[in-house]
Each structure stands twice: as C-alpha cells, then as structure tokens.
Design goal:
By secondary structure, the chain is of the alpha/beta class. Helix 4 links the parallel strand 4 and strand 5. The longest helix has 19 residues. It is globular. It starts with 6 loop residues before the first strand and ends in a 7-residue tail after the last strand. The C terminus is likely disordered.
C-alpha cells in the first residue's frame, strides 16, 4: 500500500472534489486530517472517511488567516512527524490568495523534511507565484501538482501547469 501510515491533510474539506480525491485514501491506512473554516464541513468530511474505514480528524481553521494556517500546519507536523500528502482546495471570495498561503506553508514544511506531494485543486490566479513555488519545492523533493478544474457543459476538465525541465 503506497499510502499506508502516511499523513494526509486536506485544506478546504467542504470542496466536493477534495473529498472525492481523498476517498481513495480511505482504504490505505492513512491518517487524514481535514482543516476547514467550517467545523461542520471538516467534521462531515472526517465522518465520511471514518465510515469508510479510515483514521480521520477534523479541525476548524480559518483558511483565510495566514497565522491560523501556519499554526495548524506546525502543530500537525509536530504531532505526526510530517505531512506526506496535502490537498489544497480552498474556495471563497479570497480563496485564491488563501490557497496560495496554504500551499506555501505546507511546501515549506515538506521541503524541510525533504519530501511530500501537494495537490492544488485550482490556480485561477497567481500562476507566476505557483511556477516559482513549484520550482523551489521540486529542488527540495516536493512535488506540487496544480490542477485547474472548471465545469464545462456539465463535465469537469483538468489542466495542469507543467514544471519546466532543468537543463
């Protein structure tokens, strides 16, 4: 099992596509943490995972407050020993900026440990910032996988930003 005993954190548990992605982790014996500005949303996502046989925990974290994201991430790293996979799917009026903050925060922690995977569920703005972050993270063993998902005629399409090859 590739995700056995791995730590997975989801920033933005209320986003349906983040919950769908993480359902695949339920049977993998991962520790799954859901952080959302809505305690109810985080708890509902954690309950679904627990019902599917996973070990999950919910936390209310104001995802639009940089300090709260940093503190939660630091506590999680201290408690678990590190984050292996992060899914960042923050929605809302200032979701793009909050999402970039969460990605930067978890990327710093993963870079310090020398490994990790970050899946970003939308990158509507800040493409240049993400490109720089992806380059920096890759140099430290962290894979950042940005996906842009948008409904088109009732179907979902994904587009990723390719990381330029090093010479």
């Amino acid at each position: 099992m590739l995700l056995e005993d791995k730590t997975v954190v989801v920033y933005g548990a209320s986003a349906a596509h983040s919950a769908a992605l993480v359902r695949a982790f339920a049977g993998q014996r991962s520790l799954i943490f859901f952080a959302d500005s809505s305690r109810d949303a985080a708890e509902a996502a954690a309950r679904r995972m627990i019902d599917a046989g996973a070990v999950a925990e919910a936390a209310e974290v104001d995802l639009f407050d940089r300090r709260q994201i940093e503190e939660y991430t630091a506590e999680l790293v201290e408690w678990t020993g590190g984050i292996d996979v992060a899914v960042v799917a923050i929605r809302g009026e200032d979701g793009d900026a909050a999402q970039l903050t969460a990605v930067r925060t978890v990327a710093e922690r993963m870079a310090a440990q020398g490994f990790g995977i970050i899946v970003i569920m939308s990158i509507a703005d800040y493409e240049r910032d993400y490109r720089e972050l992806i380059e920096h993270a890759a140099d430290h063993g962290v894979a950042v996988l940005p996906l842009f998902c948008a409904p088109a005629r009732g179907q979902w399409h994904s587009i990723s930003i390719d990381r330029p090859a090093h010479s």
